[in-house]
């Protein structure tokens, strides 16, 4: 069996550990030169394949590839680009096959969320239909933790840890100032459709009265009165209140709370910002002094406080993806299979892409408590091991020393797409 | 000479390392039992003295006191409470002396910014006038880095490191997504009157094209056209633009940019939020997709990524404060004296409180470049050593294990104030 090349691409929103997966893919591929020639990485994800913009990872030293393990964001560039259905835009899929053929690419590793698994699945089907042999392996990634089958998604554990740490630290700050200053602190987290990230803030609580005091989840339509009652109760009992709110929280009529029509001085609608909306509620109805933080990209890029468990799993899934390919598998995705919560034990499993593509995993109802304003112990049991362990990057001059790629491009062999 | 007790209070906004100073004060006092009896800490800062709400630190184990070194925020509670002038409210000052007398307090350590140094100075003067012997030592603290004489203020180095790390990490995120998604990222930092914190983001830049690309400082009135030109130039040359903006940025007519009259759906003025204002400018004038983060308390509470230099200096200043008191000094503040930038060398100095009280240190003009949109190399030379080194807290269950005080209160001996 002769070696064939591999194509690797990062897709969608990046994370603190997606490069650890890339590291697992490339290091494992390099360990099997008899089966895998060169790993070409798509510049800006799947666009790199469409545009034949391929980064030659053979041009990167072993040290640089190893450093990807501790480097956040997408080192090769990611893309928010969803291929249309096969029937709507067959040309795009055929272009992918053309590029793969031109560079003797026999393995396609697609590192992303639900959409990406769907794309990997379609490419596998098309390769077969076009008589071009290609093995397509999906590799999970998403801070939203919304892929089915796998116990968790790389990227989530680190953002969960970041939010839990931030909640504990800012909570101490507010507790120490509340007597004469801010009484209500609001932390806005990512999570447009699922409350996993906001829920992780609950890990900061050790005993009664500890922050967070309220968690607002997209799964629970906001009951403004119930929420305000809880805030008042917290301030009266503990002197302050820490609220963690997911960006995806909705009103009872199904609208995003962040889209409540805030306007600037020129009358322009201000986009986003569920935190200021919640803050205004607190201020106007209860009169408490507030502050809010919007963590935004800081939370998903925070490699400096990544979960060691998350980093390990991210790498292991990249490695497993290559091993599945070498074992002859196609149209599958490696997964995390949990064996036990405590002690935490897990192993790598696999699932056919057909079972993953476009299926969204929601937070189970039993993870949300009766008030709808906090999570349950079973949720905490699930979350705890995911943030375990620290995995600090190396530092230089007081700052994390992240990888910089040489980024050598592969010479193009085809005309431009659409030209 | 018999031992007398000490009073220690935290004042104003808390930091990642003010408890490290408390640790230095208490550990050093404990090492000199022949001179210092018990350290009483004010619950909620100076309010604790006015209300005779004194925390008996003798009730805390050596382990708990040692753990303060790695615990953020104000463990004894801080307060935003400025004593009025002596002539306006002499009763408050006399109450302080009464409480000190009732508990045989001969040392007053006041840990705060310019206002607090002023208060410590006045208490010293009043003690003398009232014939009550008390040595008043100011201990510097402020994330704003705006105390005069001292080279830097504990708390600043850690928030500087946080902002530089966040800028580097979020910058990598935006760089990897910009091809198909967010092109402009805005990070709002603290700094109502001085741009030190926003300036520290510049430490993230290693080479041309690295983020941050623009820094907006309170010292430079916003020139909207010049700013937008720089943003467009950055997006065109590098594909994206990272803007770091201080909350205190003002318009040419001297108004805070954050007070531009944003209103919510109910017509209420929305407070704060310079980031969304800048974002709206970018969106409306240039049309770029943006995201913004507001770090708020996360930045000053982030003990998990504290600067080792900052922690060391915070502790050393607490220790020095006690040593100054033991040496018989009064109405002074220990300072950081820089000997050289690189290698960074410093020692502890001292300054009379009269020279510190109510004097605000601004960023020197030569630290801001000609465009007004970035800092100079001399600014970076000043900043670099302040973020050097990591000083990680211990972790338990994936989260920083911060100190929890027993918080035993001293029995009151006086009637309530004002009763």
UniProtKB/TrEMBL annotation, chains A, B:
SUPFAM superfamilies: Phosphofructokinase (SSF53784)
Residues holding substrate: 142-144, 190-192, 247, 297-300
Compartmental location: Cytoplasm
Residues that coordinate or bind diphosphate: 13
Active site residues per record: 144 (proton acceptor)
Function: Catalyzes the phosphorylation of D-fructose 6-phosphate, the first committing step of glycolysis. Uses inorganic phosphate (PPi) as phosphoryl donor instead of ATP like common ATP-dependent phosphofructokinases (ATP-PFKs), which renders the reaction reversible, and can thus function both in glycolysis and gluconeogenesis. Consistently, PPi-PFK can replace the enzymes of both the forward (ATP-PFK) and reverse (fructose-bisphosphatase (FBPase)) reactions.
Subunit and partners: Homodimer.
Signal sequence segment: none
Catalysed reaction, written as an equation: beta-D-fructose 6-phosphate + diphosphate = beta-D-fructose 1,6-bisphosphate + phosphate + H(+)
Keywords recorded for this protein, A-Z: Cytoplasm, Glycolysis, Kinase, Magnesium, Metal-binding, Transferase
Matching Pfam families: PFK
Name of this protein: Pyrophosphate--fructose 6-phosphate 1-phosphotransferase
Site (Important for catalytic activity) residue list: 141
């Amino acid at each position: 069996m002769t070696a064939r090349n591999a194509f690797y691409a990062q897709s969608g929103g990046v994370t603190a550990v997606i490069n650890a997966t890339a590291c697992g893919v490339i290091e494992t591929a390099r360990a099997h030169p008899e089966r895998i020639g060169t790993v070409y990485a798509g510049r800006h994800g799947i666009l790199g394949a469409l545009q034949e913009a391929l980064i030659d990872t053979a041009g990167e030293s072993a040290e640089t590839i190893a450093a990807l393990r501790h480097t956040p964001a997408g080192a090769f560039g990611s893309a928010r680009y969803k291929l249309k259905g096969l029937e709507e835009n067959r040309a795009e899929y055929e272009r992918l096959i053309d590029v793969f053929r031109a560079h003797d690419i026999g393995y396609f590793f697609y590192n992303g969320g639900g959409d990406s698994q769907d794309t990997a699945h379609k490419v596998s089907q098309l390769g077969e239909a076009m008589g071009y042999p290609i093995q397509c392996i999906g590799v999970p990634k998403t801070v939203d933790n919304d892929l089915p089958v796998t116990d968790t998604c790389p990227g989530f554990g680190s953002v969960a840890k970041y939010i839990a740490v931030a909640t504990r630290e800012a909570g101490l700050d507010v507790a120490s100032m509340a007597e004469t200053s801010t009484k209500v602190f609001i932390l806005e987290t990512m999570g447009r459709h699922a409350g996993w990230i906001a829920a992780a803030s609950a890990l900061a609580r050790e005993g009664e009265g500890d922050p967070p005091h309220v968690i607002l989840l997209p799964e629970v339509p906001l009951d403004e009165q119930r929420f305000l009652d809880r805030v008042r109760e917290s301030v009266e009992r503990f002197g302050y209140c820490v609220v963690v709110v997911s960006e995806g929280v909705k009103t009872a009529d199904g609208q995003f709370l962040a889209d409540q029509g805030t306007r600037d001085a020129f009358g322009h609608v201000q986009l986003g910002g569920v935190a200021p909306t919640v803050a205004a509620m607190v201020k106007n109805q209860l009169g408490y002094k507030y502050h809010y933080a919007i963590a935004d990209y800081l939370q998903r890029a925070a490699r400096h406080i990544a979960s060691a468990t998350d980093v390990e799993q991210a790498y292991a899934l990249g490695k497993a993806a290559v091993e599945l390919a070498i074992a002859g598998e196609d149209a599958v995705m490696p997964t995390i299979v949990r064996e036990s919560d405590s002690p935490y034990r897990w192993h790598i499993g696999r699932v056919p892409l057909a079972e993953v593509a476009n299926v969204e995993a929601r937070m189970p109802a039993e993870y949300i408590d009766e008030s709808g304003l906090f999570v349950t112990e079973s949720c905490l049991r699930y979350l705890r091991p995911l943030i375990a362990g620290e995995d600090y990057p190396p530092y230089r001059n007081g700052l994390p020393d992240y990888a910089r790629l040489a980024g050598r491009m592969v010479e193009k062999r085809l005309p431009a797409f659409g030209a």
